[in-house]
Specification:
With 483 residues, the protein is α/β, with parallel strands linked by helices. The chain contains 18 helices and 14 strands. It has helices spanning 2-13, 17-20, 25-30, 32-39, 85-97, 114-125, 137-147, 165-172, 191-197, 217-227, 278-288, 312-343, 380-389, 406-409, 438-447, 453-456, 460-475, 477-482; strands spanning 130-134, 155-159, 176-180, 202-208, 230-234, 242-243, 246-247, 254-258, 271-275, 349-351, 358-360, 365-370, 395-396, 448-452. α7 crosses α8 (165-172) and α7 packs across α11 (278-288). The protein is globular and about 80 Å long.
């Protein structure tokens, strides 16, 4: 034993000063090659060496879902909503102004109204003419349909895969939602499916920029003009996006936006109606203002309506949020394209098709595709949970088709059965249990995944971590499949 100790001491003495000061001097001296390799910077996961286990031993798990180390050890989601002292100053300014809402202003002399300033700035940013701030995104869509004259007996075509507001706004107007399938290339409403559903009762189409992906507004506009029906663009996911170089919503007859706290333009609670058509704007204003015309200061109510006005506080926040929207949209757009490029070398994962007319996609939810057949038959949900375990918060893409929710499947909308059984509806009552949109169902059940826009606001190194997690699951598909 003394001879061994002497040998170790002798080798340690021969080391360079740097090696000799290391706390594990004896180990360094005995295995210098191995130690030097271990001190080098860890290579990206895809370059790691394969570990060869002794025959009969159980391999150590690589995947975090099985007890291995996580790829991402930070929260990829950026803080949201964002604010600074400008919002604080603006809100206090409104508080001290004693002018807290639209009804307190002369409609011809708007003065220092934050609400009117926000509306003008919003319309200008999206290349439109008129904007009307309302209480929520849902009421924005309702107002759009009211302006187009949707009422009892009317049908409105909506995508099967969307948020409930895109269909419930039709029901609030006593109309009948008719569900169109979605395009598997980009998860937005399929124009071919829309045209096949048009009847003499169709009054409008609600086209949703799902996840922020702009719809094929050109095709939809052509169809709507051909059949003399209105086109509503639901841009609640898409503020700051562009189609053919112009803002989303500007190509439709009228558009609705949501500005709730989670959206890419967050002002608290609120929504915006936008149009280039003065007549539609006047009708929308009247509906949101209890039936009074714009500029009407007396209690002269000319139309059955409600009160959906937004307050000055939210508008003050919105004005400042708009100043950040361009930069934030560009960051998301660049990161999105970087992820698309990175996935090209990972079989089984792919981005949505981006039409060349989409000049900017500002994603509220970045949808992408999981192809089970290219992942050796693993179910999408197994992959999603494994990705979450690696530290990437991942959700399922578009919701299940709306017609599968109880409010449609039951066919019971109140005691009278209206509007489905309304005598003004000149067709057989719709049985939503018989509706079938194959792409919407397949995409929701087996294919679609998504990441929140908060992740897309992160630095490039975060995008690399996401791609590294994708690659890790791809490289360990056998472990993912058998565990």
């Amino acid at each position: 034993m003394c001879q061994i100790a002497a040998r170790i001491t002798s080798v340690a003495t021969a080391l360079s000063p740097i090696q000799a000061t290391h706390s594990n001097t004896t180990a360094l001296a005995l295995f210098p090659a191995q130690v030097n390799a271990g001190l080098t910077k860890r290579k990206p996961y895809s370059q790691n060496c394969t570990i060869i286990h002794p025959t009969g031993s159980t391999p150590m798990p690589e995947l975090a879902i099985n007890g291995g180390s996580k790829t991402v050890n930070r929260d990829l989601r950026q803080p949201w909503p964002v604010h600074d002292k400008r919002e604080e100053k603006a809100v206090v300014g409104v508080l001290r102004s004693h002018k807290w809402g639209r009804s307190g202003f002369d409609y011809y002399n708007h003065g220092d109204s934050k609400l009117y300033a926000f509306e003008r700035a919003f319309a200008e940013f999206h290349d439109s003419k008129y904007a009307l701030a309302v209480s929520t995104g849902t009421t924005a869509l309702e107002t759009c349909l009211r302006a187009l004259g949707v009422e009892a007996g009317c049908e409105v075509i909506v995508p099967a895969s969307t948020y409930i507001a895109s269909a419930s706004c039709v029901m609030i107007c006593n109309g009948i939602p008719i569900f169109a399938d979605i395009d598997p290339r980009n998860y937005t409403i399929d124009p071919k499916s829309v045209e096949a559903l048009i009847t003499p009762r169709t009054r409008a189409v609600v086209a949703v920029d799902m996840g922020g992906m702009p719809c094929d507004t050109d095709a939809l506009s052509d169809i709507c003009r051909k059949h003399n029906i209105g086109l509503v663009s639901d841009c609640s996911h898409a503020h700051g996006g562009q189609w053919r170089g112009k803002g989303v919503g500007s190509h439709a007859d009228i558009a609705g936006f949501s500005c709730m706290p989670g959206k890419v333009l967050a002002i608290g609670e609120g929504g915006v109606v936008m149009t280039k058509d003065e007549s539609l704007y006047e009708k929308a204003f009247r509906y949101h203002h209890a039936g009074r015309d714009r500029g009407e200061e007396s209690m002269n109510f000319t139309w059955p309506a409600t009160t959906l006005r937004l307050g000055e506080f939210e508008a003050a926040i919105g004005l400042i949020a708009l100043t950040r929207l361009e930069e934030q949209a560009e960051i998301r757009w660049k990161n999105l394209k970087y992820l698309h490029k990175g996935m090209e070398s990972i079989p089984g994962l792919t981005g949505l098709d981006i039409d060349e007319r989409v000049t900017r996609w500002n994603p509220y939810r970045w949808h992408f595709k999981f192809i089970s057949e290219e992942f050796e038959g693993i179910h999408r949900e197994r992959f999603r949970k494994a990705l979450q375990a690696e530290g990437v918060p991942c959700g399922i893409g578009p919701t299940k088709p709306l017609y599968q929710f109880g409010m449609f499947a039951s066919g019971k909308w109140g005691e009278t059965g209206c509007p489905i059984r309304c005598p003004l509806y000149q067709a057989d009552p719709i049985d939503y249990t018989r509706v079938y949109c194959p792409e919407a169902e397949r995409i929701h059940e087996t294919e679609a995944l998504d990441l929140t826009h908060r992740i897309l606001l992160g630095p490039r190194e975060n995008m690399d971590l996401i791609l590294e997690a994708f690659q890790k699951l791809r490289d360990n598909v056998d472990e993912l499949k058998t565990s």
